[in-house]
Amino acid sequence: MASSSQNPLQNFHDFLPLMAGKLGGDGLIEELCNGFNLLVDGEKGVITFESLKRNSAFLGLQDLTDDDLRCMLKEGDFDGDGALSQMEFCVLMFRLSPELMEASRFVFQEAIEQELKDGY
């Protein structure tokens, strides 16, 4: 089995902020769901190692090694079942987007501040 000398997630190009700006929140979630649907194992309803390996070329990830793909699954697998649910996939995509995470924090903070102002 080939081993990658670097984390495959380091080369991830962050298009989520651009997509969010063009599509809005609902549109971005819809596109993330579309991405999940490209990679999902149709019988199991989750992204497995096998389905990720089989379908990764659709997302331009055909050059990743088996170890790289396993690393990606492990990074997002919160429940430890070895696969990614739709929620785990979406959370992973947001976690891989520092710019989008920062924008989300800013919007959340503004909403809280506004709520506090309105409440007093």
Automatic annotation (TrEMBL):
Keywords: Calcium. InterPro entries: EF-hand-dom_pair, EF_Hand_1_Ca_BS, EF_hand_dom, KIC/PBP1/KRP1. Gene3D superfamilies: EF-hand. Residues 64-99 form the EF-hand domain. PROSITE patterns: EF_HAND_1, EF_HAND_2. One of its GO terms (molecular function) is calcium ion binding. The keyword ATP-binding does not apply. It holds the Pfam family EF-hand_8. This is EF-hand domain-containing protein.
